[in-house]
Specification:
globular; Immunoglobulin-like; alpha+beta; Aminopeptidase; seven-stranded mixed beta sheet; single chain; 2 domains
Length: about 550
Amino acid sequence: MEKRNGQGNGNNLSQPDLLNAFSQQNIFTFDEISIDSRFDGGNLMLAEKVSPGMYNLWISPDCYKTEFETKHKVWFFFKAFNINYGNEVKKTFIFKIKNMNKLQIKNYRSGMVPVVCSPSTGNSWTYLPTPLNDMSIGDNYIEITFQFTFQPEDSTGAFFAFTFPYNYTDCQNFLNYLENTFTNDNDIYFHRELIANSLEGRRIDLLTITAHDPNILSNPEKAFETEPFIPGLFPDKNPQNRAVTNFINRHQNRPFVFKNKKYIFLSARVHPCESPASFMLQSFIVNLLNKNDPVSVSLLKNCVFVIIPMLNPDGVFRGHYRSDTKGRDLNRVYHQLDINEHPGPYSAMEVAKSLADGRLVFYVDMHAHSQKDGGFVFANYTTDLTERAEIRIFARLLDIYSRNFDFNSCGFGSPPSQEKDEADKKGVGKTEIGKETRCPHCYTLEVSYYKGTKDIKRYNPKENPKQDLFRKSDSVLGISEFNEIGDSLRNAFAEYLGIHPNSYLGNTFYLGMDGLRKRVTNFVHKNAKEKEEQKRDNEDD
């Protein structure tokens, strides 16, 4: 077997010697192919030629070869190029990932395959056209084998990844486009700030998006109140040198305070591998900025959106699965934040706290999930039955407006005494921000990497006269479905806040928001009563 790393030939062991100084992002060169992961988001630890056209590949664990190395091995992203076709017009290569964590068994059993981008796919990301050749399960890992046929036009190479990539550069390019397009827009107030630098010096951005305040527009030289500086944040601004902020110099300081509007806070990518979160968020932003969409116009008129698009840019850039560069799960540190150790989550918490004066009405942190199907939310448990009902109402609205969000996958929390693993839930963003701000509408918005089970006609009274809300219809999720879930947030926000210009609820068997609220509220109170009676019965025993 021919085994290569970036330093030359390796040994002939059937498993890689993890003590060797192989890097996390590397290039492997063979006689018929080169395999490269030396780019933003790339991850491949080792490549081994088994026979002509067949290669074993190993994923680097998060923080590989550092004191912070973890056991997380899921994300892979590499380019195969320098294809030696020999005398053939096209050539098939077989790749076996040897050491993936078992977390993804459910998705692969459902038919998930890696994604590819090449000239023959139109330079667009798509699922591989053929199923897995094989999947084998070990004690602590799985091996997946897949193949790809390089067409003549693929001579420049093809990219392969665990799922659809969205890296740090993609995020920055998108934000640069938004800044160039909307900074001086006549209708939309767009404000981009560097809220913090990551541990490795990458940007953590904060966006503020709303419609212009007519009062400010009509008084361009008048000073208006801006958001306060937060100690330790906004490193490119000097809080001691604050000019009076008016419409003309509005980009020099913090954003204006919009006192008569509701604030909605969104964030994503605290876990590096969860690229579907970025597709959801980007779709939401793009559609929110569509000035020809009446839902977006209504939202921007009544709401302010504050957004941190990438909480863990170092982990994304390094090709990690779940960790930052010190091996930490940043969605478990919100209870013990340190700006010098957790700049992304620290920034998110400080933004949320600054809005905890009654302005914050929603916080949504976007993720992807390995074990559940479709799109769904995790919410915080509350003893207040009215709040419990309102939380479920918002989830129902997402289910009504989205073809891919599935209420049946949602989780609404349990009393602390009933948590299966209370320690594991401690420090989660939506949980700790909910405690700090007392905002009941704090959610983790999740989406499956691959499988959906949503019956899109479940709320149609003609198609579903029995009102069976558990009807299922299997589907495959990809970029367009991630985008659709993200965009559905606009309708759910507008509907819940009572500002939707063209409500769909009248077409459902709820007949309107009042009908939905009544039905959900009745369910919550009945469910709570039954649990209380069951508890008393157990006590009598």
